[in-house]
Amino acid sequence: MYQITSERLLLRPMHLDDAPALFGFWSDPKVTRHMNASFTNVSEAQQMIEMLQGLFEENKAMRWTILLKHTNEIIGTCGFNYLDFENERAEIGYDLGYPYWGKGYAPEAIRAFIRFGFENLHLNRVEAKVEPENLNSIKVLRKLRFVEEGKLRQYEKAKGEFVDLIMFSILRTEWTEK
Known about the structure:
Elements: E1 4-5, E2 9-13, H1 19-26, H2 29-32, H3 42-57, E3 62-68, E4 74-84, E5 89-96, H4 105-119, E6 125-130, H5 135-143, E7 147-158, E8 161-171
Parallel strand pairs: 5-6
Antiparallel strand pairs: 1-2, 2-3, 3-4, 4-5, 6-8, 7-8
Helix pairs in contact: 1-3
């Protein structure tokens, strides 16, 4: 898998050694509130990394660990949770540790790997599905000029409850670096 850089960030393939740092984020209720998972021990984070590595090997997903360039500190993950090369589209996902919220890291990381998707993977469409209550994520997607397409009613179960999701997308023809 490729390494991606931006002004302040390095996105590199996930390693099993990332598990302790990622567990710290993936076990934090503030971070996992809108995720479909919450972890109780480091081995679960290791299993998630192994699963994502397997999906990469099958050409079904790509997930990177996000590091601060100047310190090599792990701050989260991002990537394509689902790749559909036949239809030239992908669904994105991302998470940041709570101490890194509000500093512009999420849009910077997303911008970097979406550019990679359009330029290197030749995607035509990038999608994001977000819970309506996840206002921070919605704000990030709007900042990146994703288009809100509509609500997917009771689309998935999260923590035992059916939840609505809002579908956002951006097309290659709409993409700008701004």
